[in-house]
């Protein structure tokens, strides 16, 4: 266990960590208290201290707890509860049945239907449960796996090794503030940095190891400067997607090498704030995912937060220098696609000839270079 103490704007922030293990899964318990008035204890201590949290466990051991919350009265019924637990067990790599040993129900009905508690006891072997009104909490406690420790409710996170050397250092996972997309995900860590437009081979990197591509014999290149993001996604089952950048192929090549799906977004889709510039006319954000359906879902969530702010007028350019072509079947397909685009976006195509445009707007020739004899 390690403790870090810092002061910020009159608030005392204390972070404490505790490592624990459930069977073959390793966890870290994170405690975060922000106390503006040191004389008032956090609500979790008042509700979940040893006097109220009547779980019989030694002080040096961990008691897993599942927090289940409902936002509206009478919403916490048996059917939604079963669906929630089923989704957690199927989709969440952190959650497991052990956390259902003890359950806290955050509900407007503090008495909690006896059928719910009985269902938890019979179907999930729940030994203890307690209902708490959200009005008494005073702050948000997100549903999920927790452990009580020192009278506080600590968020549980999974710990994983990084045998592929894809990340910079181990880190404390956290939910990122900001857009809707940020609030839906848990950010893990930054992948290792790479040289611009340069592939770094694992077998050639001794002082600073490059990421290992998991395919083949395990010693293949992750390829290009965003290869760490591609290697991490291909290697670790618990990752849903990874983010990267692309200038001249820095994420497209790693997708090919590591066997994952990738998309390079257009520059107008997202703000480029925070992206270290390489070549601004070509710099763009990118994303890796493991299947094409998930790619559409995650990209949609990523750009939805900025769509209203960054909507740009759509233009359909018809390149007269290259169209039409002699293949009529190809032209029929292109004409149908063009008509569909015009109908969908309510715009008409613009016929553009680069050759004619160059003739009309040819830049003036540069001024003649001064002769060395004319220089005083």
UniProtKB/TrEMBL annotation:
Pfam families membership: Amidase, DUF8016
Every Amidase domain range: 204-299
**What InterPro entries does this protein's entry cite?**
Amidase_dom (IPR023631), Arp1_N (IPR058329), AS_sf (IPR036928)
Q: Which Gene3D superfamilies match?
A: Amidase signature (AS) domain
Which positions fall inside the Scytalone dehydratase-like protein Arp1 N-terminal domain?
Answer: 59-113
What protein name applies here?
A: Uncharacterized protein
User: Species name for this entry?
Assistant: Massariosphaeria phaeospora
